[in-house]
Amino acid sequence: MSGIQNLSRRDFLKNTGITGAMVLGAQVVPSPLLAGARAQSTGASIQPNLFVSIAGDGMVTITCSRSEMGQGVRTGIPMILADELEADWQRVKIWQAPGDAEKYDPAGKDGQNTDGSRSTRHHLDVMRELGAAGRYVLEQAAARKWGVDPGEVYAKDHRLYHTGSGRSFDFGDVVDAAAGIEVPAGADAPKLKDPSRWKYIGRDMPVVDNYDMSTGGADFGADVTIPGMKIAVVARAPVYRGKVKSFDAAEALKVQGVEQVVEIPPLPDDKPAEFRALGGIAVIGTNTWSVLEGRRKLAIEWDDGPNTAHDSSTYDDQLRAAARDGGHVIRDRGNVDEAFAAADQVLEAEYFVPYFIHTPMEPPAAIVDANARPVKIVAATQSPNETRQYVAEALGVDKSEVECQVTLLGGGFGRKSKPDFACEAAILSQMTGSPVRVQWTREDEIRNGYYHAASAHRMKAGLDTSGKVTAWHHSGAWPSLIGLWAPAARTGHPIEYGLGLIDTPYDAVPNLRIENGEADVMIRVGWYRSVNNIQHAFAMNCFANELAAAAGRDPVEFLLELIGEAEVMDLAKDGVEDPWNYGDSVEEWPIMPKRLSNVLRVAAAKSGYGKPMPAGHGLGLACHRSFHSYVATAVHVVVRDDGSLHIPQVDMVVDCGRYVNPEGVKKQIEGAAIYGNTVARHGLISTTRGAVDQSNFHDYPVTRMNDAPLDVRVHIVEDFVHLRPCGVGEPGVPPYTPALVNAIHDATGKRIRRLPIGDQLKSA
Amino acid sequence: MVSIRINGVNRRFHGDPNMPLLWYVRDELGLTGTKFGCGMALCGACTMHVDGGAVRGCVTPVSFADGKEVTTIEGLDSEGNHPVQRAWRAHNVPQCGYCQSGQIMSAASLLNRNPDPSDDEIVAEMAGNICRCGTYQRIFAAVRTAAQEV
Ligand code: FES
Ligand code: FES
Question: Is there a smaller number of Cβ atoms within 10 Å at the N or the C end of chain B?
Fold first, then answer.
């Protein structure tokens, strides 16, 4: 971090929403740029992008610049700062920052998009430093007031104490003396607390919004109203890139409360979809019920466009064939062909994972007043800066003339980093002259979403006479999410390869090839919680389990042997030029096989693996590294005679390096088991002549309490607390499905190679 | 015209009596604690009470509540301290929070009717409410805790 500045009483803070007698700002910059930024900060001005302020009554306000969607960011990140500041958590409030990536992500690391399980790891150090700087300024201010040596003053629990006299001040009592106190940089920078003195970091903390969330007081995207606002719903083409041929709004306009029906122009043929509005017919009125009724009464004739050949009955087999064919070798170690020729046994299996859709409980909603300057957006968005950018494009104005305020998100899971819904509101607001809230329904969300890519996997491995794997060949094919920007893309992108495929952790295997086959993108493919890690973890963990059975060996011992105990796995040695590594350096966040082996061993121990189980019961394990974290999952399943499942216990072992709020980690991992349970057992989006077949929770079922594991035990590995913080929101999902599928095999001897499990066990 | 008592306040509604209670309380009264999740009585996000029993507001027309007493999450307890709400906070149930109004209203209605539900009864009642953040095990524990207090 570069200089931290005491900004008390600076004019430019007026527009930031940060007020208070004492304000500190800091500029966060990425470590490679540190040297330059330090030099700069010796000058008079930096552009601060993180703030903490303290008012005369002692109330501390901490900026949260990332979106809250249930992952606890509004609690976790401020906890860090409050701890170093020695603030009392009861006297801290959170200010939600608007979209402004120049300010909140000056290095261009994430565009202020809350995504990729990266908020904590990108903010831990800087929030500590800012908190320590605040403590320093308060101590100096108190010393000034008392006329004593600052070395005799210390902060504790929102008060400042003078060691000699025992006198004390509340934080609020000294802020008037804080102006002008400089925060030294470099070797003289305020000292961070020793971790043994942390009072919040590493301790369980309830989320700051707990009360509001239990009383209906929390505001989500559709809960905000602005004066003069109209409500709109949009009828969109059932097939991707379809268009309106003609429409008749006469009946819709007769519905009480419907005021206007207008067409949002379709995506121009030469423009990729990205996060732009899809186009369609909008019904606008005074209340949601009216416009929903109006939409039901529209008569629309669609031109289905170029994607009607996207039909699951044929497309799935095309993916399977493409996986078999491979064609693009993306990682190659040793020589798999020679190893297969020399192997005692060669095994092959194919795995298939269908499309999924996010279904956050809150369907997308955004409000835009396009006629105000600046243009005003209020949205449940993971990515407020890109929301500004795409709305600006839709309106033909400069991004600097657009503001985006962020509400709480009723779940995001990647859907809400794609602001097409805000673009629709912007276009409609411009067309009608009124502020407009666009409300998506569940049907809209399921039929016109951004789908988790369907994928096929051809797995092949060679075993020697001792049952050791000598060669591993994984070839996968899926439509790339890069198709959003490059519609003709037929292969994956390093980002997708890096999501658990190119970084296949079976480091102890001497010959290893990873390959990618080609596929057409015929729908909006987008990222979904954990992204491609889901299918890669499924295919590799289940195939390893099949190999262990073929070799007559214990599956956990077998998996541990594949992973090995290396400190670091170096992909460069296997010819990988771009490991992606979640956008972070491999020096700071290396791939560490020994940490993966460790969580697997702990999961085996915690789950009682190896003990005899009654008939119909099974225990399955799987492990995966994603978003830099290592998670092993053990699922205990009971398969009843009728093929139905009961899951009495799940143990999840997580090594996420340094963590802030263990209660938050536990909740994310518990939730990941439930999210994974939907992936494993229910998730299925299919298409017929290009149109999505599913529409709501009756035909796109998700896990409910009656099929959920209700005893998910989360074990956080404590041995690695000195490591860098890693992701938590997503890494719990990928190992769940293969652990369950392996457990089902343990219980029944049946292999599931195609998701969802659905009723595959019932016909058995 | 429909007359309803909502959270202790008498209201008259002159609009379309087929309008679901969900949209009436949200759009006409500004009571936004009740949420929209599916519109088809499949997710429970819109759960509210009519004469003390849980209904799915998204499919219950305003006319159904004519002359009745409607309670939304905002009216469950004036301080937000209904035993179910307290149990929810004690167990740190919410993640995103979006489903939780409906979950709490379903749990409160269950306990109104059956103050000592068995584990199976809890699961059967709460299975109507979806939580995509996956807070089910905490919901389950919180309902048990609340049951000891009511
Ligand atoms: S919105 Fe009413 S049950 Fe889902
Ligand atoms: S807490 Fe997010 S949907 Fe339940």
Answer: N
